Amino acid sequence: MAEAELFRGVITKGVGGQYTVRFKVNDKIEYAQCAARGQFRLKGIKPAIGDSVTIMPSGDPDVEYVITDIEDRTSFIARPPVANLSIMLLTFSVTDPEPDLTLLDKMLLVCSLRDIKPVIIFTKSDLNGNDSEMLCSVYTKAGYEVLVSSPQRPITKSDLKDIIGDGIAAFAGPSGVGKSTLCNSLLGIDLMQTGEVSAKIKRGRHTTRHVELHEFFDGFICDTPGFTSLSLEDQGVDYRDVLYGYPEITAIATGCRFDDCSHRKEDGCVVRSALDDGLIDSGRYGRYTSFYTELYDNRNNYRHRRKQ
Ligand SMILES: Nc1nc2c(ncn2[C@@H]2O[C@H](COP(=O)(O)OP(=O)(O)OP(=O)(O)O)[C@@H](O)[C@H]2O)c(=O)[nH]1
Ligand SMILES: [Mg+2]
Ligand SMILES: [Zn+2]
After folding, report:
1. Claim to verify: residue 136 and residue 202 sit in the same structural domain
2. Looking at residue 242, what is its pLDDT?
3. Which ligand gives the minimal distance to the CA of 261?
């Protein structure tokens, strides 16, 4: 029997245990419908979009290919399940809904711990120009890449081409901030189409439900459903990690003369004086201390419970 042909590709979509894999044959892009081998289930691995996989013909006319191997993931986020994400497009509206900066800071922290590059997009700047300038300035000063979007000046493909490169990027953020609007306009998808679908399923607005990778130059972008909360504890974040979400505080904290300083209330702490001098944004600092305190206290409660 001839040796089976193997191809390497990326999972772009998964519905009901059947996966779409994009792969190349002689430089031509093909999409295959694939089943997963039972062995993945046994090992507790569930293929996810973004996974780099090996596939081979299955011999089954219903599902023509089978996934035989999944490469180790460089990153994984569980909600929504996307593997090998390299960029998160953290999308927040400056108003309607009001920006949840606690959620934004938590996501920046998680990105930093997972080695995912964050890019912040503030949408709806047409509805509140002042706030969008203020937010843009706070997060640019903190060291992040920030883009501002409005219907008059939406984010363009060339704004994101170099940022995404050959990576996988996902829009992430609360519901109603304009993730799908941006993603569709970048992909040239007609917004009316989404509207028609949503009219059929009788939902007031077309809230995103499923996740799929779309080709974007040499990489991929995907839209994701909005979410309202994120637990740092559930994400496995330790109180000692919180500083990773605050590069501007970290830069100052390296000069702190106390070895074991949490930079919260210690007298003579260099971070506290920088705050008093207006060198650190007070909102960002407040969120740093509240995350730190919450995680620190939870850890003590946890230890206490274990002793009982
Ligand atoms: N004024 C204004 N409205 C916008 C802008 N971007 C999006 N919208 C509107 O905001 C509403 C929500 O947009 P969506 O793109 O569906 O939001 P989403 O983030 O995908 O929401 P979920 O799928 O529920 O997570 C729509 O009515 C859009 O037309 C903007 O820059 N300015
Ligand atoms: Mg959406
Ligand atoms: Zn200190």
Report:
1. yes
2. 98
3. 3
pLDDT, residue 4, reads: 73
Specify the number of domains making up the chain.
3
In the predicted model, is pLDDT for residue 197 greater than 90? no
> From atom 15 of ligand 1, which residue's Cα is the shortest distance away?
178
Q: Which residues pair with 120 in a beta bridge?
A: 90, 146
pLDDT of 201 reads 45
Do 256 and 270 touch, CB atoms closer than 8 A? yes
Question: Residue 227 domain-assigned?
Answer: no
Protein residue with its CA nearest to atom 5 in ligand 1: 124
Q: Is 303 a residue whose pLDDT tops 80? A: no
Q: Is 178 in the pocket of ligand 1 (CB under 6 A)?
A: yes
Please check whether residue 230 lies inside any domain of the structure. Answer: no
Do both 170 and 100 map to the same domain? Answer: yes
105-109 — which CB contacts under 8 Å span 24+ positions?
Answer: 105/245, 105/284, 105/287, 105/288, 105/291, 106/230, 106/232, 106/245, 106/291, 107/172, 107/173, 107/230, 108/144, 108/245, 109/232, 109/237, 109/241, 109/242, 109/244, 109/245, 109/246, 109/291
Name the residue at shortest CA distance from atom 6 of ligand 1: 178
Q: Can you give the residue range of the structural domain that contains 272?
A: 239-307
Q: Is the pTM here over 0.70, yes or no? A: yes
